[in-house]
Amino acid sequence: MSTIKVNNIVTPNNGESVSITTGGAQRVTVDSTGRVLVGTTSASGSNKLQINSDATINSLTVGRGAGNVSTNTAVGNNALYSNTTGLNNVASGSHALYSNTTGSNNTANGYQALYSNTTSGSNTASGMLALYTNTTGQKNLASGYAALYKNTTGSENTACGKQALYENTTASHNTAVGHEALRLNTTGAENTATGYQALRANTTGVKNTATGFKALLTNTTGIHNSAHGRLALGLNTTGSSNVANGYASLYTNTTGTNNAATGLGALQNNTTGSNNVANGWHSLYTNSTGVNHVAIGREAMALNTTGNSSVGVGPYALYYNTTGNNNTAFGAQALFNVSTGSGNIGIGPLNSSGSYAPVFDATTHSNRYIAGHASISHAYVKVSWTVTSDERDKMNFAPVPHGLDFVNQLKPTAYQFKVDRDTETPNGDVRYGFKAQDILALEGDNPVIIDTEDADHLKYKGEHLVPVLVNAVQELTAMVKELQNEVAALKSA
């Protein structure tokens, strides 16, 4: 049995005849009455087509006015209508590749797909009006109603979804997957948008990546942004070089730049703040204009708004900070209650049972160094603290008012700390020291040795007792010398 390979189909209209040209010398003609004519002479017979040798039918055209150029396939009313010398095109749909003349290797599926294409090649359009305006752009893939609709000369774009890359004209190397993804893009290049309306408003912004429902939705000219997650960087317009990973991360950012947010709602309310790093659920959640922050951990620095240059590492670290600047917090809930204070350093406020028990609970205070919690039993360090004592850094010098009389009233005691104030259970080793209340009674209204800032937790500053002890020794020395002089005088009498 002979084999017939069909490259192009022709369906005759009323009153027309259609020819099928084989690869050999035979010609088969079906006239308007349905007669089959084989070879160069007319022949009548039943509606049965016979070819005595294997043959390839080089053109197959179906539809009124469909193009009929060798190696092309046109199926649909006026498909490939204007084609002259273009090769290896496939047009399926009314007016598909209608204006094509010399373009080759194009595939158009859908009403008016690649309608305006003239000379460009290697495009694939699937969907009504897909790549409708394309003229010379090459190697584009458009799948969906009006995908890449206005593209003219842009090349190597991929658009999948209704109106994806709809406004694109000359930009190249964009990828849009999703309903209206990169819809308004005109000349922005090298963008990747995956998701419903991802990068929808982008016009000239370049090298952006958006993955997720409405990710980078309103971005227009911002560049080098990466958004991954539903609504990530959703309201960004001109902000650049931002990275958002997580639902609504950096959602309200408009012009802020160089931010990195990872986690649901991280930096969600940031607008113009820049150079921030937020890693964790709702970390830096309410930050609006604050800059140069690092927040790592669940709700770390969650309530910060305009404060700048703080570091919060740990769940809920610097949680209540709003406008405070230059704070550094390490550990879960470190500097938890600091709100407007600045320049504080806080480390590890949770005890072994997980209770919040910092040795000092800063709120609006500034310039405090707070290390550890109230249940610490041992503090280890290799060397002594090295403390600044340069005369040039001090002022208002005056004699220390206390001496031997003060020392004689001190009541040294051995003691142990409690596990907590309400429990009569010892914590740690036996220690030597003083009761703060005893020293405070001796100091009076302007204490130096005892810190009364937190009246419910009095603190002892032992280094301030040293000058008092020196005074006492000096007074004793003077008394000893005086006695020595008296003894010497008695001996010489």
Can you give a write-up of this model?
- The chain has 493 residues and is mainly β.
- Among the domains are: 1-62, no CATH class; 399-472, no CATH class.
- It contains 3 helices and 27 strands.
- The protein has helices spanning 404-408, 436-443, 465-492, and strands at 4-8, 18-21, 27-30, 36-38, 55-62, 73-75, 90-92, 107-109, 124-126, 141-143, 158-160, 175-177, 192-194, 209-211, 226-228, 243-245, 260-262, 277-279, 294-296, 311-313, 328-330, 345-347, 369-371, 413-420, 423-433, 450-451, 459-460.
- It has a 20-stranded parallel beta sheet, with no helix packed on it. A 3-stranded antiparallel beta sheet has the order 2-3-4, with no helix packed on it.
Walk me through the topology.
Blueprint: E1 4-8, E2 18-21, E3 27-30, E4 36-38, E5 55-62, E6 73-75, E7 90-92, E8 107-109, E9 124-126, E10 141-143, E11 158-160, E12 175-177, E13 192-194, E14 209-211, E15 226-228, E16 243-245, E17 260-262, E18 277-279, E19 294-296, E20 311-313, E21 328-330, E22 345-347, E23 369-371, H1 404-408, E24 413-420, E25 423-433, H2 436-443, E26 450-451, E27 459-460, H3 465-492
Parallel strand pairs: 1-5, 5-6, 6-7, 7-8, 8-9, 9-10, 10-11, 11-12, 12-13, 13-14, 14-15, 15-16, 16-17, 17-18, 18-19, 19-20, 20-21, 21-22, 22-23
Antiparallel strand pairs: 2-3, 3-4, 24-25, 26-27
Strand content: 15-25%
Task: Give average pLDDT, whole number.
Answer: 88
- What is the number of strand segments? 27
Q: Describe the global form.
A: rod-shaped
Order of helices and strands: EEEEEEEEEEEEEEEEEEEEEEEHEEHEEH
For the largest beta-sheet, the strand count, sense and barrel status come to:
20 strands, parallel
Give the N-terminus to C-terminus distance in angstroms.
155 Å
List the quaternary state of the chains: single chain
Helices and strands: which structural class? mainly beta
Number of helices: 3
Rg is 43 Å
Residue share in helices?
Answer: under 10%
Q: Which consecutive residue ranges, at least 5 long each, have pLDDT under 50?
A: 1-10, 14-18, 21-27, 31-60
